[in-house]
Specification:
Elements lengths: L2 H23 L5 H5 L1 H11 L14 E4 L5 H11 L39 H14 L6 E6 L7 H11 L5 E7 L2 E2 L2 E2 H4 L5 H7 L3 E6 L3 H12 L5 E6 L22 H15 L1
Parallel strand pairs: 1-2, 2-3, 3-7, 6-7
Antiparallel strand pairs: 4-5
Helix pairs in contact: 1-3, 1-4, 1-10, 3-4, 3-9, 5-6
Length: 273
């Protein structure tokens, strides 16, 4: 099995973990978690310089999950990397659990920033990137946001700031699954040519298939070689891997019934067989 085949399989295994977590919890956001599986797998397995056994290592790369409702996917990869015990995944959203519905930096190692209110992540990433530059560190900051949350104006203030300070140590990744809570992004508030918008704000913008680990790896390699601000638009499918969830806004945060759970696991594991 090649490296890319292994990564592709790991992303699919991540989806199984996500569905297991959300079904047991009786709540959680499946659609946006499933769409980001390959992105997180490539980041944590291939791209970021991290030490899971030393989560506060000063020279680590930073990651901010701006789309905080995608927490199940982040928790799944953090557990796989050894930030905490995998058994804790079964406590998602339970009272006193370290695995809150949205990431909490005070409860779980590996969480750089508590996120939940959409639209804040890029601004936080700007602050982190600026701080690292002032400290003379070569660490990178990565921010993963959803396309729906780009409807928040704060993001575009952050983009202008990225451009002004020429933050070449910050990579903005957009999980472009085209669907948000109340419908498709185009139905709710269309953004038109997103790549052109980002480039007009001074960010060199790359696009790739967000479900292809080789394409993602190449996009990150290119991004890290660019001398200036950069964004990656990763084209994805909401609810990827589960036929009845794909592209459906209803599965933004819908509880998974026993019947739906069994069908989802059958489909996901069928790909792994």
């Amino acid at each position: 099995m090649s490296t890319f085949e292994k990564l592709q399989q790991e992303a699919q295994e991540l989806r199984v973990t996500i569905i297991n977590m959300i079904h047991k919890a009786g709540s959680g956001h499946s659609g946006g978690s499933l769409s980001s599986a390959e992105i997180l797998t490539v980041l944590y397995e291939k791209v970021m310089n991290i030490r899971p056994n030393e989560p506060q290592w000063e020279d680590r790369d930073r990651f901010v999950l701006s789309k905080g409702h995608g927490a199940p996917a982040l928790y799944a990869i953090l557990a796989k990397k050894g930030y905490f015990e995998a058994e804790d995944l079964h406590t998602l959203r339970q009272i006193e659990s370290c695995l809150q519905g949205h990431p909490c930096m005070f409860k779980l190692p590996g969480i750089e920033m508590s996120t939940g209110s959409l639209g804040m992540g890029i601004s936080v990433g700007v602050g982190m990137a600026l701080a690292l530059k002032l400290q003379g560190k070569s660490c990178k900051t990565f921010v993963l946001c959803g396309d729906g949350e780009l409807q928040e104006g704060q993001n575009w203030e952050a983009m202008m700031t990225i451009s002004k300070w020429k933050l070449d140590n910050l990579v903005v990744i957009i999980d472009r699954n085209h669907v948000q809570l109340d419908g498709s992004v185009d139905e709710v508030l269309p953004m038109g040519d997103l790549r052109a918008k980002l480039e007009s704000f001074g960010l060199h913008t790359l696009t790739c298939n967000g479900h292809n680990v080789q394409a993602l790896t190449e996009a990150f390699d290119t991004a890290l070689g660019i001398n200036g601000p950069v964004a990656i638009i990763a084209e994805t499918v909401k609810g990827k891997g589960v036929s009845f969830m794909e592209g459906q806004s209803a599965w933004h945060g819908k509880p998974i019934s026993k019947e739906d759970y069994e069908q989802a696991i059958k489909e996901l594991k069928g790909v792994l067989a």
